[in-house]
Amino acid sequence: MLVHDFLKKLQIPKKYLGLFPNIEMDELTYRRRQKRLYWTLKTSKILSFELYQQLQQAILDHFHVALHLSVQPENPQATHVLVSDYLLFFYDQLGVSNRLRSSSLVLEGDLLSIVMLTKEDVDTMRTYQFDLQERLSVVGFELMVDFVLYQQLDNEEPKAKISAKPLFGSSHQPSANNGRSRQRGEPVMVELKHLVEDMNNIKTKGELFKLNLRQLKSGTYIANFMIHSGDDAIECTKFYKTEADCLLKENTTYLVTGDYQYNSYARNHQLKTRDIEEIAPLFTIEDRDPIKRVELHAHSNFSEMDAVSSVESLIQQAYDFGHPGLAITDHMVVHAFPKAQRYVEKLL
């Protein structure tokens, strides 16, 4: 079914249909335990909050389930009006107090600065920084979010204001914390094998073994990386302003802090990382034999379906053990040798 046909069935007004390319629909995923539909929708630009709400309500009326909608706009250009409308909605979801909702916005490129009046307000709102950035990303914004302290300048005019008025008026039910701002406590240490969905504000440790850093259309970078503890592994994500800011390395152990949640875009569970710190290795193996051996049958990841170790990691391990040499005997190929030569030259 085409996206247009599906939206017509949902009785979305015709004036909005031009925002959606006339393409086949992506699959709707229904999660029974949550009674929620997950849908990734491709659009020409970021949806207005009014249309976003209409889609949510139309799905609820048609299927009688809630909708988790991820938006992928071709042009993710943000405006103050768009951002402020969604921010009010997310503030309401997170239970941000009305006092803290009154703030100014400064939008410069892919950086959204939310200006607060006191340092205490900045510190409080920074506990929501990661959540807000992730929620904005889900609806199509490619923005880095920061909270800054207001400093009066001559003839300064605020770029935009967020009203403290409740988003849904008097009919809206208050959040569970009765409008009080939420404070994150100390993150709880959880082993990888004990992680379950929607565990927030946790920290865990593992060795990084796969890293993919890519640039978004806005110019910011997102790192997707895997960590393991020897008996389990998870995927993590973290945003960076520049490529140089990402100092992650494979075969290095990290302490990672964040929220473990389902990512409807990637369709798997991920640890959405707030902080990451390099720590001592989880796994230390020593070769204490005075007579060092030479491994004569080692396969690298160029041996398809047979090995996963990189050429560099094999050489580094042999070097750390004090072995005088190493034979890489991949199946049918010799592709490892240029990399091996370069890495040996780097070591020596």
How would you describe the overall organization of this protein?
This protein has 348 residues and is α/β, with parallel strands linked by helices. The chain folds into four domains: 71 residues, Alpha-Beta Plaits, CATH 3.30.70; 73 residues, GMP Synthetase, Chain A, domain 3, CATH 3.30.300.180; 91 residues, Nucleic acid-binding proteins (OB fold (Dihydrolipoamide Acetyltransferase, E2P), Beta Barrel), CATH 2.40.50.140; 54 residues, no CATH class. 24% of the residues lie in helices and 31% in strands. A five-stranded mixed β-barrel has the order 9-10-11-13-12. Strands 6-5-4-7 form a four-stranded mixed sheet. Helix 3 links the parallel strand 2 and strand 3. It is globular, with a radius of gyration of 25 Å. About 9% of the residues have low confidence.
Silhouette: globular
Succession of helices and strands: HHEEHEHHEEHHEEEEEEEEEHEH
* pLDDT < 50 stretches: 152-159, 161-183
Helix content: 10-25%
What about the largest sheet? 5 strands, mixed, barrel
Number of domains: 4
Distance between the termini: 60 Å
- Please tell me the CATH architecture of the largest domain by its name: Beta Barrel
Show the helix and strand layout:
Elements: H1 3-9, H2 14-17, E1 29-31, E2 36-45, H3 49-63, E3 66-75, H4 80-94, H5 98-101, E4 103-108, E5 111-116, H6 119-125, H7 129-138, E6 144-149, E7 161-162, E8 188-189, E9 199-215, E10 221-228, E11 233-240, E12 252-263, E13 268-278, E14 295-298, H8 311-321, E15 326-328, H9 336-347
Parallel strand pairs: 2-3, 5-6, 8-9, 11-13, 14-15
Antiparallel strand pairs: 1-2, 4-5, 4-7, 9-10, 9-12, 10-11, 12-13
Helix pairs in contact: 4-7, 8-9
